[in-house]
Amino acid sequence: MQNLSFSNSTSLDLLEFQFLYEEIYAAAINTLSIKKPVLLSVNFIDKDEALNLNSYFRSKNYVPDVLSFPAELSDFSSILSEDEISEIGDIFICYDEALNKSKRYQHSIREEMAFLFVHGFLHLLGYDHEKSSLDEKVMFELQDSILLKIGISYNIVFDELDYLRG
């Protein structure tokens, strides 16, 4: 059974990132000790679609690099223990914005795209770095741990624009 489904509404060939995300997904399931299959959809989108989604669902007027929309689950902790398959939601990744940030922060596009997937996946599981500094620490440590399992050391960097837009 395939646990990840992919959609690409861009004109780019992003197949290499599908393979990368399958590898990251396996590392994340292992790191988080998730016992049952979880299904999620990964959507590669262009700047216009990213802006439209961000405006409509979050009332934000900028192009985001990643958006996560969780499925209607009553309790995320059940994902860790139950035997039934759970659909946890959708991740939307804007390659153009990822490319911009990879250049600005001097990451490879592979590192940036890997980070965005892990970040979005953890949000779907209920992790939220915006709640508190403790929640941020927990989420970012998990991101690092998962990425290190596939050989990526990612240094999170923000500049003033990231905060002004969000």
Explain what the structure shows.
This protein is an alpha/beta fold and 166 residues long. It has a single domain, classed as 3-Layer(aba) Sandwich (Collagenase (Catalytic Domain)), CATH 3.40.390.30. Helices cover 47% and strands 16% of the residues. The protein is built from six helices and four strands, in the order βαβαββαααα. It has helices at residues 15-31, 47-58, 95-104, 109-124, 133-149, 160-165; strands spanning 4-8, 38-45, 66-70, 86-94. A four-stranded mixed sheet has the order 1-2-4-3. Helix 1 links the parallel strand 1 and strand 2. Helix 3 crosses helix 4 and helix 4 (109-124) packs across helix 5 (133-149). The termini are far apart. The relative contact order is 0.16. The mean pLDDT is 85. Single strand-specific metallo-endoribonuclease involved in late-stage 70S ribosome quality control and in maturation of the 3' terminus of the 16S rRNA. Its EC number is 3.1.-.-. It is found in: Cytoplasm.
Largest sheet: 4 strands, mixed
Please estimate the helix content: 40-55%
Give the number of domains: 1
Enumerate how many helices there are, as a single number: 6
Task: Specify the CATH homologous superfamily.
Answer: Metalloproteases ("zincins"), catalytic domain
Mean pLDDT value: 85
Distance linking N and C termini: 37 Å
Shape: globular
Q: Based on helices, strands and strand pairing, what is the structural class? A: alpha/beta
Number of strands: 4
| Name of the CATH architecture | 3-Layer(aba) Sandwich
Level-1 CATH class name: Alpha Beta
Residue fraction in strands: 15-25%
One letter per element, helices H and strands E, the order comes to EHEHEEHHHH
What's the assembly state of these chains?
A: single chain
Strand arrangement, major sheet: 1-2-4-3
CATH topology tier name? Collagenase (Catalytic Domain)
Radius of gyration based on Cα positions: 15 Å
**Which regions are unreliable across 5 or more consecutive residues at pLDDT < 50?**
none
